[in-house]
Design a protein that fits this description.
Order of helices and strands: HH
Distance between the termini: 25 Å
Radius of gyration: 18 Å
Shape: elongated
Helix content: over 70%
Largest sheet: none
Number of strands: 0
Strand content: under 5%
Length: 71
């Protein structure tokens, strides 16, 4: 399970880095259609981490850890 969490965390980091790079490229470009791409990229940069946190929070609420019980 730890391996899966590490892979998902790495994928999330790569996704965020890609969003930051695309935001920078769109901000520096002077084309008309890049303004819409810039808005979308900034929106995704904020929304995706919030959604990931929300999903993990809800998962932890629905699947609490159970202590090992001695029988």
């Amino acid at each position: 399970m730890k391996k899966v969490k590490r892979i998902l965390a790495l994928a999330g980091v790569l996704l965020l880095v890609g969003l930051y790079v695309s935001t920078l490229v769109c901000a520096l470009a002077a084309k008309d259609h890049y303004l819409q791409l810039l808005k979308t990229s900034v929106y995704a940069t904020v929304v995706i981490p919030v959604l990931l946190w929300t999903y993990s929070f809800i998962y932890k609420l629905l699947h609490p850890r159970q202590e090992d019980k001695d029988i």
